Amino acid sequence: MTNSKFTFLVLGGTGRTGKHFVSIALNAGHKVIALVRNPEKMDIQNPNLKVIKGTINDSYSIDELLNGVDFVVSMLGDARLQKLENVNTEFVKKLIPAMRRQKVKRFLYQAGGFSRPHKEKLPFMFWVLKQTMVRFSGLLGQHRDNEAVIKYLTEQANDIEWMVHRASIISDDASKGNLTRSKTKNSLATFVDCAAFNYQLLLDETAIHTCDLSYYAK
Ligand SMILES: NC(=O)c1ccc[n+]([C@@H]2O[C@H](COP(=O)([O-])OP(=O)(O)OC[C@H]3O[C@@H](n4cnc5c(N)ncnc54)[C@H](OP(=O)(O)O)[C@@H]3O)[C@@H](O)[C@H]2O)c1
């Protein structure tokens, strides 16, 4: 699978993780379709990159966006809007039926380490940090939205090859190494390493229907 060339529909491609993901996919020779609110923020130029101006809230045809797509990747986030409503969940609830119609099977969603897997509890220290640091940073809404996406995928989308990366990210510094999937261990990673991990995860069949953390194994 790693030698094949694919088309990725990237949501959040101008974001801190998404911009690295777009570069990684293009550098590996794949095609990328990026739905972006602000095309001027997309500073990558590549014949294999198609930038479409729009937001996930627009009432355009998602089916058209999915034309010829192999993988859908969401690195979406808007903490201000997500405080008020589950915008990502509303979008994912439209995306998944469109993926079924267009026969696009695989979807990666980047959530956070503080986003709880469906019907599971966070480890005690994660819970404490979520009720303090995350709450005071104004990010509880983002995790509530991520958790609603995870619930929807788990309960209503098991025919889709979804995977959730519960990322922990600290900086936009250079790579600190390769991240590895884990149910229990996490590292404070860089955006570029999370993007590289997302790329590997998408091609990893053993990651289907997982909702794991990531850590630097060495
Ligand atoms: N940042 C962290 O430290 C961190 C840590 C762990 C997990 N995460 C999770 O990872 C995800 C991505 O994080 P990030 O920090 O890489 O994100 P980010 O830098 O905030 O970027 C978010 C991306 O989503 C796009 N976006 C937001 N609302 C949109 C809409 N309505 N329509 C279209 N595009 C929209 C943004 O577009 P614009 O460029 O136009 O704003 C941007 O490209 C989030 O869900 C977050 O929970 C983040």
UniProtKB/TrEMBL annotation:
InterPro entries listed in its UniProt record: NAD(P)-bd_dom (IPR016040), NAD(P)-bd_dom_sf (IPR036291), Polyketide_Oxido-like (IPR051606)
A GO term for molecular function: oxidoreductase activity, acting on the CH-NH group of donors, NAD or NADP as acceptor
Residues in NAD(P)-binding domain copies: 12-185
Protein name in UniProt: NAD-dependent epimerase/dehydratase family protein
Organism name: Flavobacterium restrictum
